[in-house]
Amino acid sequence: MKKTPAQRRIDAAIVKAMKPAEVTLTVRKNSFVDVLAPTSCKLGPTGGNLSTVAAMRMDDRPRHPRVFIDKKEPNKLKIRSKGATIRFTIKPDGYYPIGIAFKLIKGEPNPDQLERLGILNFETAQMLRTMHTLTITDSFKDEGHDNQYKFSVVIQRARDCAIGIIDPDIVHES
Prior knowledge:
The chain is mainly β.
């Protein structure tokens, strides 16, 4: 049976929605902070912040139907209901993702802590890591509207094996 043009458009939208949102985190020059350095080096380039500064961007073509970065808030990744798979690419080549952590910073967490730690929405056991990319799926299971998470991508610098943290936000938009 042949599909109608409307059915083909719906099928194409579903396939497009299933593709990962491609997010690039580019470590800014001279901004890397080694979080394991001796105490005397604990002040980062942002005045006490232990985060490595990175520019976050997404390719606009084609625009992902559920994930976007608002130009007014370039450090917030916004995700529409029902969530999406997100592939973070770390640049330049001398840096590698080694993990990710989440913390609910806006919203009401469930008493069992799964939502507070992001475990309810971001199943880190299902995280895929290859070379310079880290892929997670936001299942958007929380019941709170506009919940906001601080997420920290843990990276490692190849030349000296130093550990750094990139620290943007994720906002669930209902």
